[in-house]
Specification:
Oligomer: single chain
CATH topology: Thiol Ester Dehydrase, Chain A
Number of helices: 2
Bound molecules: coenzyme A
CATH architecture: Roll
Shape: elongated
Distance between the termini: 30 Å
Length: 139
Amino acid sequence: MNDSIIEEQNDDAPTPQGELALQTIAMPADSNADGDIFGGWLVSQMDLAGAVCANRLARGRVATVAIDSMVFLRPVAVGSVVSCYAEVKDIGRSSMTIIVEVWAQHHSDAEARKVTEGQFTFVAIDENRRTRPVPRTGN
Ligand SMILES: CC(C)(COP(=O)(O)OP(=O)(O)OC[C@H]1O[C@@H](n2cnc3c(N)ncnc32)[C@H](O)[C@@H]1OP(=O)(O)O)[C@@H](O)C(=O)NCCC(=O)NCCS
């Protein structure tokens, strides 16, 4: 786990960091036998949310090249509204490092709570899957 990225974030922050990139509802099919949502499903949603952000930055096709940290802070109940927020941490030549936070709120909850956070790196690629530069202007 990359501890440094976790240390840079304020776990007690009352509001999500970044832009809302994806919102969905956790369904029974996404849960284990005890009714908790699978971590792998959450990672998948986070990957999609990061890709939404990276696609916009790269103005085209991207591929996930790395997930450098992933922390599961709280369980997610079936029926929760799951909101993924994406914040750009760094842009290289072809790479984009994006912090994705997941906040979940069940109808029985007073407010949404951060349940997961992770650092995703995407690479801008062309139609032949070769890396290409991230456009520098107009982002
Ligand atoms: C993404 C891919 C095209 C990159 O190819 P590559 O030969 O590794 O390219 P490079 O070594 O030139 O690296 C490209 C960029 O990724 C970065 N990178 C590569 N591996 C990385 C890693 N493990 N962590 C963070 N960044 C990484 C490099 O630093 C470089 O950044 P920069 O251009 O901003 O300097 C190739 O690895 C690939 O196709 N991987 C499979 C992607 C995939 O199927 N993802 C799942 C579905 S989307």
